[in-house]
């Protein structure tokens, strides 16, 4: 299936994965497909320009991480921060931003786990509240959405 049938964010996410795997040609191709899906997808334009200028420049990698973090695409952001740190440890922002991402992930995971416990003991309203809080922390967390849907169904 072509990424043209997906949304622009799907193509952008796939580009980030290819970048993480050092498949720059595929990453560039998918950023271009993301732009074809949505010509206002500024992040894809920015990422393409960074690749063109210097694909392993620490500031460029860190900036890409910032863009994905701003878009709540935390796993992709983390991959760019890790790539930055693989090139240099002389920039503090990637360390700080990874810590923020890991802290958010831990908080959201904890809320989902507590929600699961509440649901198991029949306290579905409290489970729903925890799942909603987890979704607010990490809007793209599939487990939180799935468990929230299940809790609403069981209510």
Automatic annotation (TrEMBL):
TPR repeats lie at residues 108-141. One of its GO terms (molecular function) is protein O-acetylglucosaminyltransferase activity. GO terms for biological process: protein O-linked glycosylation. Keywords: TPR repeat. Pfam families: TPR_11, TPR_7. PROSITE patterns: TPR. This is Photosystem I assembly protein Ycf3.
